[in-house]
Every structure is written in C-alpha cells, then in structure tokens.
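Annex B. Sample input.
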Amino acid sequence: MDSIAFPAVVEAESGRFLEALAGVDLDAAVPSCPDWHVADLLWHLAEVHGFWTQIVDRLLEDPSAADDLERPTDAALHTFATAQRVALLDALTRRSPTERCWSWSDLGGDVGWVARRQAHEALIHRTDAELAAGLTVTRPDAALAADGVDELIRGFLVGVPEWASWAPDGTTVAFECTDVGGRYVLELGRMTGTSPASGRSYDLDAAELRDDPSVPVHAEVSGEAWDLDRWLWGRGDGAALSITGTREVVTRLRAMVTEATQ
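Annex B, continued. Sample output.
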C-alpha cells in the first residue's frame, strides 16, 4: 500500500474512464451495473469526485457541509466529469496525505485514505466504462489489484461497530492472491445491535479477520489479484478463480460482499 502513489492512480484510471466513454452513446447500457446507462455512470463518478474534492480541499470534518452538485444535461456530462476530475486531482496533490478530514470508515480520517479510496473507485468504474464501450478490460498492475482486494476486505467486509455485538458461528473462508501473495481468513457470524445515530436495529451476517491465515477453512476463493478484485466488486464472473469447499459458504460470502459494497 505505502508504495502506491494513489493520486497518480486516480489520475490514470479516471483518465482511462473518460477516454473509454468518449463518443459512446449515453443511453448505452452498463453491463456491470444493470440499472445504469452510460450517462448515469458519468454522473456517478463526477458526483463522487465533486464530493471528495470538497472534503479534501476544505478539510471538512462534517460531510453535511459539502455542497450538493447539480446534475448537468446529458450533453454536458463528459465535460462536467472532466472538470470534477481535475478539481479532485488538484485537491489531492495540494494536501498532505496526513491532513485530517472526514471519512465514513474507521480506517480513514485523513487525505491519504481518500486518495486510496478514490483510486479504487476510479479503477472499478474504469472497468465499467470499458465494458459499456465494448472494449477489452485493461488489466492493472498486480500490486494495485492486490491492494484493491485488501481495501475491500478490511474497509468494507470485516469489522463491526462499537455499539454492535459479534457472535462468530465457526464458519471460516479464505481469499488468496496467487500472483503477488496475500491470504485472508475470515470467520463468519452475526452482528446484532441498534445504531445510536439512526435508531435502526441490525441482525445480519458479518465477518472478522482471523489472525492466523493457516487455519483450516470451509471454503476458499483464490486466483490472481485482479481476477479476485473484479469478482469481489461484481465485475467478473469468477471463471478465472479457483473456488473450493462448501458452495453454500461461498454463496453466503458473495451475498455479504454485495451488501457491504452497495
């Protein structure tokens, strides 16, 4: 992670995103996002860029202080998305990675976290753009893909909030990147509790990382980092992966990943 220049990744991947969609019919479907057309994909990444530009540029500690962006006409979307990209890159390069700002994740809280999150946001949506344009999906550097696997597992899939209770059920599952190394063993269970912020009660599947990656598992998903990253984000069918063990565990895990990344 420390060796990856995340602002440079944001620049490269968001640039490829815009290049892939240049001249593409805005009403064309996005195969990896069934409810979206190309116009929606352009607007989504532009809106995300615009929001995080404000968080980083103003070092906001409260996300409600960020202004809402107004969606432009479809004809202006590509130009608008280009402008939001430029603004985000400017903010990320002017600020130090250690400067504090808001984040939705307990792992975040600084500009460096934003840069990493936006690097993978751009990477995954560049994949969407190439699929929508009918292009061959470009394979990123293996180290970046492996970091994407790590970010999704640690940042989205595992962990429960302080107000919740965690009850493991003894089910274990592993992910392994076979080309660059990196193995994660997760124990599945239930998270229950009531959020003090919203008052909403929860009772759902959750996972925690096991310290020992060599423990026996009920199922394992392994393959090259990019194939695993794409599968985790729902941008690949897993045909290139090795999936072994109890099929029901893999199905359960797939549902947990989908819920965590919505």
